[in-house]
């Protein structure tokens, strides 16, 4: 795993990591988001059957706006909806509290 925060800052990608200057309003209209850290990992597997390569990059995004508290004392159903299209991206239920 490789920490990309400092290399990105050296490339002048500074505002993204500032809680006062980052503009991630495309992700959350209320604003208040900034990137805390970025990590990249890669793996390569070689054997007699062939090669498998994989890579992933993760950005840890935090909010300086308080997160609303949700407390459930009974089973419930939830959905994640894409606001612009109204498309349901995920529907689930929690039955075991």
Automatic annotation (TrEMBL):
GO terms under cellular component: extracellular space
Keyword Glycoprotein: yes
Keywords of this entry: Glycoprotein, Protease inhibitor, Secreted, Serine protease inhibitor
Protein name per UniProt: Putative serpin S-24
Domain Serpin: 2-96
InterPro entries, A to Z: Serpin_CS (IPR023795), Serpin_dom (IPR023796), Serpin_fam (IPR000215), Serpin_sf (IPR036186), Serpin_sf_1 (IPR042178), Serpin_sf_2 (IPR042185)
Compartments, record wording: Secreted
Family designation: Belongs to the serpin family.
Gene Ontology terms, MF aspect: serine-type endopeptidase inhibitor activity
Top-rank taxon, per record: Eukaryota
């Amino acid at each position: 795993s490789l920490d990309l925060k400092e290399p990105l800052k050296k490339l002048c990608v500074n505002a993204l990591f500032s809680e006062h200057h980052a503009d991630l309003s495309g992700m959350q209209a209320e604003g208040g988001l900034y990137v805390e850290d970025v990590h990249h990992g890669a793996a390569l597997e070689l054997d007699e059957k062939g090669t498998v390569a994989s890579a992933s990059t993760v950005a840890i995004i935090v909010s300086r706006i308080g997160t609303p508290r949700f407390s459930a004392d009974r089973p419930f159903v939830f959905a994640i909806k894409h606001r612009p299209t109204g498309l349901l991206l995920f529907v689930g239920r929690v039955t075991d509290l």
